[in-house]
Design goal:
By secondary structure, the protein is of the alpha+beta class. It has a domain of 121 residues. Helix content is 56%, strand content 18%. The chain has three helices and five strands. Strands 1, 2, 3, 4 and 5 form a five-stranded antiparallel β-sheet that branches. The radius of gyration is 29 Å and the shape is rod-shaped. It starts with a helix and ends in a 6-residue tail after the last helix.
């Protein structure tokens, strides 16, 4: 009889150790699943924050964009300096115009606590070519190209592409 008890105790001991391994496996699985969900949620949060602030950014930089377009329409390099003055006024908690060059390329910094700084160059285009201002020659900017100064995160790329869509009146949201 004592042999049967020993054999039964061994069997119970093996089952108990197998239950412990299963519990550890379950805990590991839940931990890894939690990390994946947290990563997806964080990425989705960034995308939502960009979308929420994009219209505010667009409204802030629109006077600057319109001033650059006006200088091209009137064919005056002198108006670029007026554009620069108009653009220098853009300085909100979401966006700041850093520079405007002689051809009207506008460099902006977007700032958001969850995204950090996202820099974009807004480049005026005329018929799929870089715009260059010419005195006494009226030109119409046909599109704006948005070039990120760096784009490592999904939110950076989203900001750049959606801002360009807004500038070119292609935004569907």
């Amino acid at each position: 009889m004592s042999g049967a008890k020993v054999h039964g105790e061994e069997k119970n001991s093996i089952l108990q150790s197998r239950k412990n391994i299963t519990l550890i496996e379950h805990m590991t699985f839940i931990f890894v699943l939690g990390l994946l969900v947290a990563g997806i949620w964080s990425s989705r949060y960034e995308v939502i924050m960009v979308k929420e602030n994009l219209n505010k950014i667009y409204v802030s930089i629109n006077p600057c964009i319109l001033a650059v377009e006006k200088s091209y329409t009137q064919g005056s390099s002198n108006l670029i300096s007026d554009s620069v003055r108009q653009c220098e006024k853009v300085n909100t908690h979401l966006v700041k115009v850093k520079t405007v060059n002689v051809n009207g390329v506008v460099n902006i910094d977007n700032w958001h606590p969850s995204l950090g700084k996202v820099s974009v160059n807004l480049v005026p285009m005329i018929d799929n070519d870089l715009a260059e201002i010419a005195d006494k020659e009226s030109q119409i900017i046909t599109a704006w190209r948005c070039d990120p100064t760096r784009a490592y995160r999904q939110a950076d790329r989203l900001l750049e592409s959606r801002l360009c869509d807004l500038l070119n009146k292609k935004d569907k949201s």
